[in-house]
Every structure is written in structure tokens, then in C-alpha cells.
From TrEMBL:
This is FAD-dependent oxidoreductase. It holds the Pfam family FAD_oxidored. The lineage of its organism: Bacteria, Pseudomonadati, Pseudomonadota, Alphaproteobacteria, Rhodobacterales. It comes from Pukyongiella litopenaei. GO terms for molecular function: 4 iron, 4 sulfur cluster binding; metal ion binding; oxidoreductase activity. Keywords: 4Fe-4S, Iron, Iron-sulfur, Metal-binding, Oxidoreductase. SUPFAM superfamilies: FAD/NAD(P)-binding domain.
Length: 422
């Protein structure tokens, strides 16, 4: 049995970009907020899977046009105070504008902004169970380091990435694309010990991959050399080139994925040391802490953003957030497929895509919001997660205040007062 109970207006499950956005949105809308995170730090894939870039803050194009502000901008401002430039970086591989991150400073920035906004954060804790009536969530049971405890709230946000809260509530959900396909996982690696004057030659990197594939039982399928950059405020090299198919969501498959990814990373750096000038003294500094998971469960929402919404750049009166990242699908490992956002370069996320089907006081943020299998390739990135989280948090705060889920109009009004872009 839970050892104690605590009352909140809003409880957020998950401390990635969507969860932080939701907590900030709810707190700035006047709610008392708790955030539950399974790791010992916040940040989601940016810190737990070494995805050292925020994607989705800017439109694609010749110049960076901002698509996300509000809660996301609060986090960028705090990182700037910690010495991270957060200037738009134009990826030579994809043509997208991204924000390069320092994961350790990001962890501290997220701690600070949530503390400054009065959010109670529970690290090393996860939602283990939940209670509900027919159409409302009443409480969640959290498993923490000191046992189980109960958080009671008027409204809840599932920003867990894997739909953990929706899962324990028994919410219907789609796995992957609904036909057994789950987007490939990634194993970004960080390499230290490069010579100070090392210039990264893509042709040499491609040849190193070809040699790796002759030695390893596990192939690297990217043929373009992958995506790489220098880590800000260091001489380290970050490389996203290992993608592997994920056959299902079993613990056994995740275990094999982690073990295989680590073996591949170690051998790959050995090959770099042998064959690429400047890497002679290099070593594998880091994988993980876990593989980069792109897709798992999709809980039922009241609206699914469709492929057509993205490629037409659909704008709508019930929109509560912008999404500007192109569709990026990794259905086949190492062979990403891109489709551009139409219209003005962004489309609207409607409020109903954030609202759980059949549950009045449950909202979604980040990669669990309603989207069809192709649109999902656009909404899942972290910049967009901040925007959907901000909106979900405001909606949850208004739900807690009035006892009923709001329409889009009041949510839009609060978000615009708080500096969000819609």
C-alpha cells in the first residue's frame, strides 16, 4: 500500500522535453504541479540517450525561423546563462536547423527552471499504478526509492514517451505503426581523444564504416557517413550512425538492442583509431545511458494529426502549438525518409490531439500525442515536444481550475499571454 498521499492540481508523468514543457505550462498557468521522472535527471532523450540536439525549434529553410517559444525558450535562456550558445546550427547532412546541447548543463538548466517555477520534482520514481472512475483519473501510485506513495490531482499529463500512464490506466493504444513495424532505435556515441586539429573527412568516415561492416556481425546500414558534430564546450566528437531495427517492445528485445549497440560502438571506435587520421588516440567516451528509442506506444487521442495535415501545413482555429520539423521516418534502419512540411513551413497541433479519448482529465505531451504513423515522424522531436507540452500543461491547469476540459480558445489565450508561438 502507498505510504503517504499528496494533493496537486496537475501531475506530469515524464521529465523529457514534453514533461518539462507541461510542468512549466501548468505552473505558469497557476497550478500546483508535480513531475515524476524515472531517471535521476531530467531531459529525456537529450540526456538519457545522448541525442545532443534539439530539433523542431526552427523551420527548415535557408534561414532559421523560430517555431517554438514559451516553455522551450525559458529552457534555452537558462542554458545560455550557463554558457551554452543555443544558436541555430544548420545541419549539412539534413538541411535542418537544430540547437546543439551540452547534456550536463542541460540537466542543471532543467533543474533550475522547474525549481524556479515551484514544480515538485520526483526523480528516481515512476508511475506504477493509477486509479480512475469511468471518465476521470483520480490518482497515481508512484514507486520511488523510499517505497510507494500516492499523488492525487485534478488533472494529469502523460509525457512519458512510452505512454506509461495511459498504459496503467488501460487506455487503448496502437503499437508502432499498427502493422508490427516500430521505428529503428539509435545508439549515438561520443568519442574523446581526437587530435586538436582533426578535420572530419566524410569520405574517410564512410570507408571506416565499410571496414567495420566486414568485421562485425551487426551491420551499419547508413551509407552517407551518418550525422556528426563536435560537442559544444569540448573537443569531443558526437556521431549518430548506428541504427538498428527494433522487432517488438519486449524486455528481451530491448536488452539485445542495448548489448548489440554497445558492442558495435566499441568496435567502430577501434576501426576509427586504426584508419582515420586524427583518431589514433581516440577512445569511446560514452554510449547511452540507454539506446535512443524513437517509437513505442500511441495511446488513443480525440484526434490524430494526419499525414495530410503535415504536408499541407494545415493551420486551424483549434491549434494550440506549432510543429515545423519535417516528417522523418526510420522504418528501415539506416535509411531515413524525409517529407517536408507544406504551407508556411509549420502546421498546427490541435487541442484534441493532446486530449485522451474517453478520459476527461488526461492530457498528452511529446511523442504520445495523437498522430498517424507518418505524421508521427514529425511530431516526435524535442522542440515540438516542448510546444505540445506547454499546451497540455495549460490545458491540464485549466481543467484542474474548472473541473472540466477547456476548449481551444482559452488554452490559446493563456499560451499567447505566456509567450508561446501559435
Amino acid at each position: 500500500m502507498p505510504r503517504h498521499e499528496t494533493q496537486y492540481d496537475v501531475v506530469v508523468a515524464g521529465g523529457g522535453a514534453g514533461g518539462v514543457g507541461a510542468a512549466l505550462g501548468a505552473a505558469r498557468a497557476g497550478a500546483r504541479v508535480a513531475l515524476v521522472e524515472k531517471y535521476g535527471f531530467l531531459g529525456g532523450a537529450a540526456t538519457n540517450a545522448q541525442v545532443l540536439a534539439y530539433c523542431g525549434f526552427f523551420h527548415q529553410g535557408a534561414d532559421p525561423v523560430q517555431a517554438v517559444a514559451g516553455a522551450g525558450e525559458i529552457v534555452l535562456d537558462e542554458m545560455r546563462r550557463l554558457g551554452v550558445a543555443c544558436t541555430p546550427y544548420h545541419s549539412p547532412t539534413t538541411g535542418n536547423w537544430i540547437v546543439l546541447l551540452d547534456p550536463e548543463r542541460l540537466k542543471i538548466a532543467l533543474d533550475r527552471v522547474l525549481m524556479a517555477h515551484g514544480v515538485d520534482v520526483f526523480l528516481h520514481s515512476r508511475v506504477a499504478a493509477a486509479s480512475r472512475t469511468a471518465e476521470r483519473v483520480e490518482s497515481v501510485t508512484v514507486a520511488g526509492m523510499d517505497g510507494r506513495f500516492r499523488l492525487i490531482a485534478e488533472s494529469f499529463v502523460d509525457a512519458s514517451g512510452d505512454a506509461n500512464l495511459a498504459l496503467v490506466l488501460g487506455q487503448p493504444m496502437r503499437l508502432g505503426d499498427g502493422e508490427g513495424r516500430i521505428q529503428a532505435y539509435s545508439m549515438p556515441i561520443r568519442v574523446s581523444g581526437l587530435a586538436a586539429d582533426t578535420a572530419i573527412d566524410r569520405a574517410r568516415m564512410i570507408r571506416a564504416i565499410e571496414l567495420f561492416n566486414t568485421r562485425s556481425p551487426h551491420r551499419i546500414d547508413r551509407t552517407d557517413g551518418g550525422i556528426y558534430t563536435r560537442v559544444p564546450a569540448s573537443s569531443d566528437f558526437w556521431w549518430l550512425v548506428i541504427d538498428r531495427a527494433m522487432p517488438d517492445l519486449s524486455s528481451q528485445s530491448f536488452t539485445r538492442a542495448e548489448q548489440t549497440g554497445r558492442e558495435m560502438a566499441l568496435l567502430l571506435v577501434d576501426v576509427l583509431r586504426e584508419t582515420v587520421p586524427g583518431f589514433e588516440g581516440a577512445w569511446l567516451a560514452q554510449t547511452g545511458p540507454q539506446i535512443g528509442v524513437r517509437e513505442t506506444r500511441h495511446p488513443a487521442a480525440r484526434y490524430e494529426i494526419g499525414h495530410g495535415d503535415v504536408i499541407r501545413g494545415r493551420l486551424r482555429e483549434d491549434g494550440v502549438a506549432r510543429a515545423a520539423w519535417p516528417i522523418e521516418l526510420h522504418s528501415e534502419a539506416g535509411r531515413p525518409i524525409y517529407e517536408q512540411v507544406g504551407g508556411k513551413g509549420y502546421y498546427h497541433i490541435p487541442l484534441d490531439a493532446l486530449h485522451a479519448r474517453g478520459i476527461e482529465n488526461l492530457w498528452y505531451a511529446g511523442r504520445v500525442i495523437g498522430a498517424d504513423p507518418r505524421a508521427y515522424g514529425s511530431i516526435r522531436v524535442m522542440g515540438t515536444a516542448f510546444a505540445s507540452g506547454d499546451a497540455a500543461g495549460v490545458a491540464a491547469a485549466l481543467t484542474a481550475r474548472t473541473g472540466a476540459a477547456p476548449d481551444a480558445g482559452p488554452v490559446r489565450a493563456v499560451l499567447q499571454d505566456l509567450g508561446a508561438l501559435i
